[in-house]
Write a structure and sequence with these properties.
By secondary structure, the chain is mainly α. It contains eleven helices and no strands. The longest helix is centred in the N-terminal third of the chain and has 34 residues. About 5% of the residues have low confidence.
């Protein structure tokens, strides 16, 4: 009898762990489907609730793919500027321009002098001049900064893409959502608590530790990834909140893009 109870407890424990792994896999698969254009098998179960917590991990994975592309182009003796441009274009392609589109709409909205009209302009599908200028500035900053990096490019790409999405997670957890519906509403509704920020933060800190382990002389770069990445991510979200009184799906994308661009410039300088 005692042995039977012990067996039942073990079976229940295993079933619980398998269920948790299944939930984790469904959420991660949904995050890949939502945040990228990468194909997801139709047989996968997708759970979109709470996918924002997986965004930093998806970002690091995107950076790893970009780093691999960068290495392959380097092996083909591709000139630095051309190589960097192709990597940035691939970056936009992998995400389907999801975050860049948000940055464009946010640029148009913030250009309006009347605060009460900003959300209306951001919701307009027509792209204005300020949105185009924002997109050009972001792409130019990324291409120029990546071109100035001669080493550690793969790890930098992973860190930049990861911290950009961690900044989005901070904005979701910290600030109110300004629209009744929209793509960003699912993030706000399913955000559990500020503790959801911790796994992504620790993962990105560990990434800097890996960089330091690979190259002991790059401690300034590793420290810049953590301090610069977290600071820029937090301040970018705070600035958009100051200008709009909250966030929307568009500003979440803008946080990602501007954090990536500014952090890439900082790391190029370091």
């Amino acid at each position: 009898m005692r042995e039977n109870r012990r067996v039942r407890r073990v079976v229940k424990f295993v079933q619980t762990k398998v269920a948790r792994l299944g939930t984790l896999g469904s959420g991660l698969a949904a995050a890949i489907a939502f945040y990228t254009c990468l194909p997801v098998p139709l047989s996968w179960t997708l759970e979109f609730r709470g996918i924002a917590r997986y965004a930093p991990f998806v970002g690091v994975a995107i950076g790893a793919m970009l780093g691999l592309l960068d290495v392959l182009l380097q092996l083909l003796a591709m000139p630095g500027l051309t190589r960097s441009t192709l990597v940035i274009v691939a970056w936009i392609g992998i995400t389907g321009g999801l975050h860049l589109d948000g940055a464009i709409d946010t640029g148009d909205g913030l250009a309006v002098q009347e605060p009460h009209r900003r959300l209306e302009v951001m919701a307009d599908s027509v792209t204005g001049a300020f949105g185009v200028m924002a997109a050009v500035a972001l792409i130019a900053l990324k291409v120029a900064a990546l071109s100035d990096l001669s080493a550690n490019r793969a790890v930098v790409l992973m860190a930049v893409a990861g911290w950009g999405r961690w900044g989005q997670l901070v904005a979701i957890a910290r600030y109110p959502y300004l629209k009744v519906s929209g793509k960003g509403a699912i993030h706000q509704d399913s955000m559990g608590s500020p503790w959801d920020l911790l796994p992504g933060f620790l993962f990105l800190v560990a990434l800097s530790g890996v960089q330091l382990w690979l190259d002991g002389n790059s401690w300034i770069l590793a420290a810049g990834m953590v301090t610069g990445g977290s600071a820029i991510a937090i301040l970018t979200g705070a600035w958009f909140n100051y200008k709009l009184g909250g966030h929307t799906g568009d500003t979440y994308g803008a946080v990602v893009e501007w954090t990536e661009a500014l952090l890439l410039c900082l790391l190029a300088g370091l």
